[in-house]
TrEMBL record:
Residues 36-188 form the Aminopeptidase N-like N-terminal domain. InterPro entries: Aminopeptidase_N-like_N, Aminopeptidase_N-like_N_sf, PepN_Ig-like_sf, Peptidase_M1, Peptidase_M1_dom, Peptidase_M1_pepN, Peptidase_M1_pepN_C, Peptidase_M1_pepN_C_sf. The gene is pepN. The lineage of its organism: Bacteria, Pseudomonadati, Campylobacterota, Epsilonproteobacteria, Campylobacterales. Belongs to the peptidase M1 family. It catalyses: Release of an N-terminal amino acid, Xaa-|-Yaa- from a peptide, amide or arylamide. Xaa is preferably Ala, but may be most amino acids including Pro (slow action). When a terminal hydrophobic residue is followed by a prolyl residue, the two may be released as an intact Xaa-Pro dipeptide. GO terms for molecular function: alanyl aminopeptidase activity; metallopeptidase activity; zinc ion binding. Keywords: Aminopeptidase, Hydrolase, Metal-binding, Metalloprotease, Protease, Zinc. SUPFAM superfamilies: Leukotriene A4 hydrolase N-terminal domain (SSF63737), Metalloproteases ('zincins'), catalytic domain (SSF55486). Residues 538-851 form the Peptidase M1 alanyl aminopeptidase C-terminal domain. One of its GO terms (biological process) is proteolysis. Residues 228-441 form the Peptidase M1 membrane alanine aminopeptidase domain. This is Aminopeptidase N. Residues 446-535 form the Peptidase M1 alanyl aminopeptidase Ig-like fold domain.
Amino acid sequence: MSEIKEIYLKDYKQPEFKVSKCDLCFELYDDYTIVTNTMNIESSKKDNQLYTLKLNSIDLELIELYLNDLKLSDARYSYKDEVLSVYNTPNKFSLKIKNKIYPQNNTELEGLYKSGSIFCTQNEPEGFRRITPYIDRPDVMAVYTTTIIADKKKYPVLLSNGNKQSENQYGDKHSVTWFDPHPKPSYLFALVAGDLGVINDSFRTMSGNDIELNIYCDLGNESKCFHAMRSLKDAMLWDEEKYGREYDLDIYNIVAVDSFNMGAMENKGLNIFNSHYVLANEELATDRDFMGIQSVIAHEYFHNWTGNRITCRDWFQLTLKEGLTVFRDQCFSADLNSKEVARIEDVKALRERQFVEDASPTSHPIQPESYISMNNFYTATVYEKGAEVIRMIHTLLGEEKYRKATDLYFESFDGQAVTTKDFLWAMSEAGKVDLTQFERWYHQNGTPRLLVSEKYENNKYILRLTQVIPNTLEGQRQRVYFFPLKIALLNEEGKEILEETLTISKEFEEFSWETDSKPILSINRDFSAPIIIKQEQNDYQFLSRHDSNSFVRYESMHSFGVDTLEKIIHNDEIDREFVDTYGYILDADLNLSFKALLLELPSVSTLMQRQEVVDFEPIYEANEKLQKHLASVYKDKLLSIYKNNHLPKDDSIESLSMDRRAIKNRVLKLLSMLGDEDIIDLVKNQYDNSSTMTDKIAALDILENTTQKEGAVSLSDFYQRYKNDTLVMNKYFAILAASEREGTLDRVMALQNDDVYDEKIPNLVRSLIGVFARNYKHFHSKDGLGYKFVADKIIEIDKINAQMASALAGAFKIYEKMNETNKKLMKAELKRVVSTHSLSKNCYEIVNKILT
Ligand code: PHE
Ligand code: ZN
């Protein structure tokens, strides 16, 4: 392993050399690739001294180096500890480096690698140094020309960034040269070569340029790319209308590959995607998959301005592009679908992933101060909390000033590598707000709490708020925040007496209003700030029935559910008022997806986050008890909702069809808790007769968790039908790995030998091992076998793909909060992982943080 070194933001220095031009030539062979890299380099110092140029290089075989066309002798350079040093370089020169790499052996999936028979790249954050020696940091921006030479038959499609410049044929080989006029950091470089299928379309931009759009995929999958193409065109139009941003090359290429560590990558003009976020049709993809494609396609497209045209000065600024781009894709999805449902889904995801992270030993600010492996910082905090921070700015400024501020940001920093401070400058300048205190959101970690107490006397309503800010991991105090808090006061009919966005900036604040009667408080409307609200008294029952703000309505129902479950855990008592409210919602006339969200009971993770010492068993028991009770009290109502909305042959992805599937699968799941035969028949029927993957998966999941016999029949039917489609098989593995049935661990272990399973493909690892590691019931089983299994996998997979392994290690983040029995078992496994010989720095960083 490379030496473990912690990198600090405070140590940032401007680069000593700049690369203005980078000409690359790739000769692709079956068992190796030759890279020739010719750079124009200039020292930032103007003193005519001789300096040592340092280039990042990992696992490269150097062939030869030329400085200003003169071959360098061995004495002029050295290669050690991932740095290639070239001595005594002049102020301005060209450097040509020829080196050899082995993409077919690259299992880390960083740099140039093979996904099946396709050559592809992944360079963010530091993959480019695995391709050729380079000043591999985002504040070094160059203009790239790329020539790819390969066998014509095997690799008819040769792609890189920018516009196509020329093509040539030589016998069995051909070459294509690409030119990207926009200076860019190396992490945005991309190359693809393969025998690919493609669909084309075009888009006319607002200033009348016609852009060629291509989506490439494995041959035979072309018909599954249309939803992605539709989404791309929607995103292009949306960015013009909402931000005035237009696309800037003649061509926009997207390539779908099966082996990819993350979701997708915004390489300039050549996005590379995990095929999960491109390929879909009504038979093979769930509604959730369709929504995921729409949002990730848009996300990568939006990066063209927020990320590529304006990029990050260093990796500590990651949230500059990610927080902003997530906020943009969230707004896009909200505009194209249901706003209310989108907001609730975003908040749910934030709390399930980011709040948990923020309460763990790996908690960090959206702008971290240090890292060992940058790969570990592509987190829910940097992305999702980062998006909440931008959303707060949007709320503080309002739509109009926010648009002026983003215009100013684009005008001021186009073509540059900048910091979050630069972004905040544009926001405060055009928004005319002082964001000095607001900036704390970038540098402090943990989730703030807001204590709320209310008083009503002499026709005066008084609201008292107290900010409670968690300490840092080291126990240092942190300071109070500046944030928008949207509230309303409601009368007994649920009508708004007033709605206001308060600006909170002090530890204690008091607000008061004159009202004729005691109002009901609706607080943190739309989840205007990413905080935890603690109310002295609550009106959940009223608000979940009557609040006009859909988020608070959801929130109240959710909190009501939490209280109800906690009462069951502590007093074994089911709250009748909650049961009544549940019935009220069942009858209410609402958007069906929204209704499905209101009817969803709080997750195991929600309750776990509230426990001082985590113990899952009581949570599972309480959940089961409440669900069974609701299902038996409302069986008839639930059945009629199911029947009214179950249209087995409707496979449209129009919103009404999706809404119907959402509600009927929600009620079916609840009904299945009864275990009644008539219900199991419905489920089986749905599996057999529905034409959508959403319905099939919902049914399969229920069958797996309720009945041995029917479950086995349907599962094997599913397997036979879809075993040749890896994307569908991911769903199969995930259902089995998430199963609450006895014996899940044994089955997961056995599935590793299934013909379809492949430890080198991240999607499959995530579906089988990753999902198991988040199956609280079995991962945390008291015999410790769940822990042992996952620890074994981390050690094994770390040798193949360190990024995958450290993602798995994340499952141990709740270590500190576990009960003594589980803690002891976890500790033993964590120690075993950390002391593994030649463990990657990725895994070391995560596990070490958990243990200390
Ligand atoms: N930059 C990518 C995105 O947000 C994520 C990514 C990071 C992909 C690192 C691969 C590697 O969209
Ligand atoms: Zn992104």
